[in-house]
Specification:
mainly alpha, about 5% strand, binds heme C, single chain, elongated, Cytochrome Bc1 Complex, Chain D, domain 2
Length: about 110
Amino acid sequence: MQLSIAPPQTYSPAAPRTATPENSVSAITPQIPDVFTGQGYEDFKIAGCFYCHRIYDKGNKNGSNLSNVGSLLSYIQIKNQILHPTSSMPPSPDMPPEELSQIANWLEGLK
Ligand code: HEC
């Protein structure tokens, strides 16, 4: 019986990699949309919501992520969550209506 022996592989180094627009770091790193503006954002910050929540790179890294909350909940549902949360989140039943609307409006826009 004849053993067939594969010929030795020749080593050919990979072609040097060059950055193209498609594989450049900025193309593959998810861009953080510029959402951190406006009164709703300011109110969210002041109300301490970032203590438990994360939006993109801001807030508590272990907190629940609200970066796309506008795709999951409507404006009314977000308001309800703030006033009467169904989770361990502390309710804010006395939040002034103006502030509540601004926060809900801002969060609703995060898609
Ligand atoms: C003490 C911690 C804590 C604070 C402070 C807090 N939350 Fe929450 N929040 C939670 C938890 C826990 C949940 C439930 C997360 C889950 O179910 O994944 C939640 C859920 C939510 C949701 C629903 C998200 C979803 O996916 O269902 C919204 C909207 C929300 N919070 C907004 C706010 C806003 C606005 C504030 C500030 C006024 C705030 N939270 C402050 C803990 C907190």
